[in-house]
């Protein structure tokens, strides 16, 4: 038998022994001291943990509880245990919405290797004796992974944590810890990763890292550290990633590259480092990612930067660097460079036209807000791998080169706020990545930001959040002329199309309705004429739209997303019909796609006259039917009116309009809904929205509805009602509540919603705990949608995709 085969046998036997130990531990009762510690831990929480037993000894099988991993006493070598029981080695309850306090009983789990309570809502300070280590015992002495990040913990960090000699991972990120960072960090001799980012630590960073010979990752960004980088940290041979961004560090950056042989990612952005850009950095042979943005550097890029062997990402935004021509000449020799961000430098310089410049592997080029002069140089056309180009907020002139349309991977082009003239290149309508491909920027590292936006990211935002760059064509605020090409409708992957503040003329092509992924369309402040194409109503994802200040006329399209756009989206035209515009003449009452007037066509007049006659007749028939139905249902309504005299004159017995559904509600009327909600009694309120409350309704046959009551008589509320009716009536997504019908109640609008399971209509936090994981995922998605930073918000397509991935059948 060969050596390799022998090793394979050993591996298989080891795996089988491991599985046997796990199975054995699952059949063992939980150790009584561990059970007691877990019960105390549960008492510190404000709500029980799903899948855990009660708080007494009648449920001793804690090894089968959610988030608990046990090993048998014998497998752990605990020969002193009188009974071979299951010992808790892992307590993992990340992202479980835990609220309350962390009690010190957890420290009694003396065989615990992993404690992960991150991404919860734990508050207050860490108990002083949580990890206390009395000489007579070995509480938590085996702990290797301690993850308490993303909670609401406050105060200082207990010195007892630094006595955990086997600790490999310490994650305290995104809490409210404060005070100076203890020198006790230097006692964690086994530490491999330290994350104290997004807290309120202050003072200098202690110079105690010489003893941490295994430390690979140090994340301390978004605190209030001052002073210089400690010498022991600047000489760490094991460090792979150093992220001290967004602090108040200063002085000269002095790293010993001959010692830091493993350093691959360096992020010192948003500090107060000064002097010249360090010329010795290429001596760090494995350095791939460098972010030195928003510091106080001056001068030119060092000539030595041409010697970088592995450099892939470089950001020097907002550093007062000069001489763009020299910078590009030097950096083109970095053959691995894929991302180059130089925003807010080189003020007033010319964009070099040197034909010898060439960036073979460049994917991201950002030189924005530099007031650069000149035109877009021909050498840029040779960078065939470009995915994202941002040259916005400069003083560039000339025409936009047509060769942009030949970039196979380009999905983000921002040339806004310049002085470009001429027509929009027709070639841009054929960008492959905006027609048939889905391309996104790859992060250089899970803990490294792609590049800075014009606004700094605030404290508390984590670097492991993916920055979203939606497919974009931004050509706003230039002097572009000519038409909007109909072929732009082929760009089905485009999300943002921004052409405002140019001199574009002609009509708005109806073909733009083919841009199925479009979320933003801004055509304002141009010389466009004709009508707004009614086909644009089909852009289901459109959330921002403006045609303000053009020469448009005719009726504003209605329905779908158009009902949600503000009046300011249409001002400065000759439009009519809605959004604060005058009523349309009768001849403009139909959605025409051309400028010809129907009054000139005698056949159209005849058809209109016939339509009016038949319409009037149909209306009379409908009114008679409503009166007959009202009479047949008058008794129930009369009884209700007798107890509500003040409302009797205003209420009419309207029927509820039912949409197509598999359910058969037959003659469901308004009074049926009033009775099912006990006349909208407060006891039936189950939620609230921006324009009203949501009530529980129980129909006589036992089926349940949620009735959203939109109150008020404002135009905004009317638009909200119509938009929601149209959107929800078409929605077929399994994670969206389906609209069953709608009706009117005085000045209120009613929306009927129903699902097959009660937990999909009413809040499972109130009624049960069967959908915790799904609900938590939805809440996380909602929080991303509400982010104050636009680039962090998901696109509508991403949103639908994420909702599709949620298991509604659990």
TrEMBL record:
UniProt xrefs under SMART domains: LRR_TYP
Transmembrane segments: 604-628
Pfam families: LRR_1, LRR_8, LRRNT_2, PK_Tyr_Ser-Thr
Signal peptide region: 1-25
Chain sites annotated for binding ATP: 708
Keyword Disulfide bond (UniProt): no
Membrane topology: Single-pass type I membrane protein
InterPro entries for this protein: Kinase-like_dom_sf, Leu-rich_rpt, Leu-rich_rpt_typical-subtyp, LRR_dom_sf, LRR_N_plant-typ, Plant_RL_S/T_kinase, Prot_kinase_dom, Protein_kinase_ATP_BS
Span of domain Protein kinase: 680-810
SUPFAM superfamilies linked: L domain-like (SSF52058), Protein kinase-like (PK-like) (SSF56112)
Keywords per UniProt: ATP-binding, Leucine-rich repeat, Membrane, Nucleotide-binding, Receptor, Repeat, Signal, Transmembrane, Transmembrane helix
Subcellular location: Cell membrane; Membrane
Any coiled-coil regions, as ranges: none
Name recorded for this polypeptide: Protein kinase domain-containing protein
Organism for this UniProt entry: Salix suchowensis
């Amino acid at each position: 038998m060969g050596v390799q085969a022998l090793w394979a046998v050993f591996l298989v036997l080891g795996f089988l022994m491991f599985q046997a130990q796990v199975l054995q531990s699952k059949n063992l009762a939980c150790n009584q001291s561990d059970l007691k510690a877990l019960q105390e831990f549960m008492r510190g929480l404000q709500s029980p943990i799903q899948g855990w037993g009660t708080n007494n000894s009648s449920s001793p099988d804690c090894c089968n509880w959610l988030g608990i991993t046990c090993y048998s006493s014998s497998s752990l070598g605990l020969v002193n245990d009188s009974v071979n029981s299951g010992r808790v080695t892992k307590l993992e309850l990340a992202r479980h919405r835990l609220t309350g306090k962390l009690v010190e009983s957890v420290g009694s789990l003396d065989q615990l290797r992993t404690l992960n309570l991150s991404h919860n809502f734990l508050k207050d300070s860490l108990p002083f004796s949580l990890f206390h280590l009395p000489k007579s015992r070995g509480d938590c002495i085996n702990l290797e992974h301690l993850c308490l990040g993303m909670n609401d913990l406050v105060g200082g960090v207990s010195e007892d944590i630094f006595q955990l000699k086997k600790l490999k991972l310490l994650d305290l990120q995104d809490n409210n810890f404060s005070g100076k960072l203890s020198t006790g960090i230097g006692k964690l001799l086994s530490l491999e990763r330290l994350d104290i980012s997004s807290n309120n630590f202050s003072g200098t960073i202690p110079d105690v890292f010489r003893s941490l010979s295994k430390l690979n990752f140090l994340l301390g960004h978004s605190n209030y550290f001052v002073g210089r980088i400690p010498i022991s940290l600047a000489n760490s041979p094991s460090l792979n990633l150093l992220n001290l961004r967004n602090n108040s560090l200063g002085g000269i950056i002095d790293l010993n590259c001959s010692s830091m042989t493993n350093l691959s990612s360096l992020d010192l952005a948003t500090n107060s480092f000064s002097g010249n850009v360090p010329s010795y950095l290429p001596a760090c042979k494995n350095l791939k990612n460098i972010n030195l943005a928003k510091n106080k550097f001056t001068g030119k890029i060092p000539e030595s930067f041409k010697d970088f062997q592995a450099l892939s990402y470089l950001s020097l935004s907002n550093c007062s660097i000069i001489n763009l021509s020299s910078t590009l000449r030097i950096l083109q020799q970095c053959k691995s460079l894929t991302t180059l961000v130089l925003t807010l430098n080189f003020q007033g310089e010319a964009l070099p036209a040197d034909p010898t410049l060439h960036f073979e592997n460049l994917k991201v080029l950002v030189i924005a807000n530099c007031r650069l002069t000149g035109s877009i140089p021909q050498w840029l056309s040779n960078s065939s791998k470009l995915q994202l180009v941002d040259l916005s907020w400069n003083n560039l002139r000339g025409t936009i080169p047509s060769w942009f349309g030949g970039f196979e991977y380009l999905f983000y082009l921002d040339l806004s706020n310049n002085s470009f003239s001429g027509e929009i290149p027709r070639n841009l309508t054929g960008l492959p990545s905006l027609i048939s491909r889905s391309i996104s920027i790859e992060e250089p590292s899970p803990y490294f930001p792609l590049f800075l936006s014009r606004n700094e990211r605030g404290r508390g935002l984590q670097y492991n959040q993916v920055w979203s760059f939606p497919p974009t064509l931004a050509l706003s605020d230039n002097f572009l002329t000519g038409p909007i090409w109909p072929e732009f409708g082929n760009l089905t992957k485009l999300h943002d199309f921004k052409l405002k503040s140019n001199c574009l003329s002609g009509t708005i092509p109806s073909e733009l309705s083919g841009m199925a992924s479009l979320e933003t369309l801004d055509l304002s402040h141009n010389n466009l004429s004709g009508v707004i194409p009614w086909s644009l109503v089909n852009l289901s994802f459109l959330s921002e739209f403006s045609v303000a200040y053009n020469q448009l006329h005719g009726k504003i399209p209605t329905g779908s997303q158009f009902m949600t756009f503000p009046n300011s989206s249409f001002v400065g035209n000759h439009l009519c019909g809605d959004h604060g515009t005058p009523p349309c003449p009768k001849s403009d009452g139909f959605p025409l796609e051309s400028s010809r007037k129907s009054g000139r066509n005698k056949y159209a007049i005849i058809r209109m006259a016939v339509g009016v006659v038949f319409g009037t007749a149909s209306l009379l028939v409908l009114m008679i039917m409503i009166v007959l139905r009202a009479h047949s249902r008058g008794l129930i309504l009369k009884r209700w009116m007798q107890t509500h005299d003040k409302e009797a004159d205003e209420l009419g017995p309207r029927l509820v309009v039912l949409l197509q559904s598999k359910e058969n509600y037959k003659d469901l009327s308004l009074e049926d809904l009033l009775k099912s909600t006990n006349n909208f009694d407060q006891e039936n309120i189950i939620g609230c929205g921006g324009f009203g409350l949501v009530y529980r309704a129980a129909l006589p046959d036992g089926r349940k509805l949620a009735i959203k009551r939109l109150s008020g008589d404002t135009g905004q509320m009317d638009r909200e009602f119509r938009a929601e009716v149209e959107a929800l009536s078409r929605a077929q997504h399994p994670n969206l509540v389906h609209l069953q019908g709608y009706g009117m109640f005085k000045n209120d609008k009613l929306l009927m919603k129903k699902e097959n399971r009660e937990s999909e209509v009413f809040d499972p936090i109130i009624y049960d705990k069967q959908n915790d994981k799904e609900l938590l995922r939805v809440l996380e998605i909602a929080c991303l949608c509400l982010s104050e930073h636009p680039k962090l918000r998901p696109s509508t397509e991403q949103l639908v995709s994420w909702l599709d991935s949620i298991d509604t059948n659990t």
